[in-house]
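Reading a protein record of the kind used here takes only a little practice. The record below shows the convention in full.

——
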Amino acid sequence: MNDFLASDAVIDATHPAITETAARLRRDHPGTTDFARAAFEFTRDEVKHSMDVGDRRPTVAASEVLGHGAGLCHGKAHLLTALLRAEGVPAGICYQRLADGKGGFFLHGMTAVQLDGTWYRQDPRGDKPGVTTEFSLSDERLAYAPDPSQGEADLPGVFATPDPGLVAALRSTDDVIALVANGGLPGDLS
C-alpha cells in the first residue's frame, strides 16, 4: 500500500468519524481537486486552532482533532491528511522551522497533497488577524513565510507519518497552551 494513503495511529484515516466526514465532503465535491479544496476549507474553518480559542486539550490524532473541533497546526495537518487519504488522495505531512520569539524555534505543521503527480503544500492552520491561508495549486498561500536571516526555513520533504519527536512532545502534556508558551515544541525534525 502507498504510505501516503495509509492509516496509522495519528493519521487515522480509517477511523469512522474521519471516513464519514471525508465521504460527506466527497459527495458534495466529487472532483478530486474540488474535494481536496473542500477538505482544506473544512479543516481550516470548522476546526479551531487551539491557541486562537484557548483550548488546552492535547489533540494529536486526526480523530481527536475532529472530535474536539480544535488542535494546533500539527493536529489540523493530521486531520486534513487523514481526510484526504480516507478518499484515496495521497497526502503527507511537511514542516517549517519558525522562530518562537524567545531565541528558539518550533515546528509548524502543514499538509502536502498530491494531485496529478505533483505535491502541493497546504496550510490549514486557520485564519486570524495577520494570518490568511488559501488552498492553492499555483502560488503557495501559507500562514508563514520563513525568514532565513532569522534561521527559519521551509524544511524539505513530505512525510508519510508525523515527526516522532513532535508527537512525543504533544503526547507528553495535558496543556498544549503551556507546552507552546514554555518552548516545549521541537525546533527541528528528529
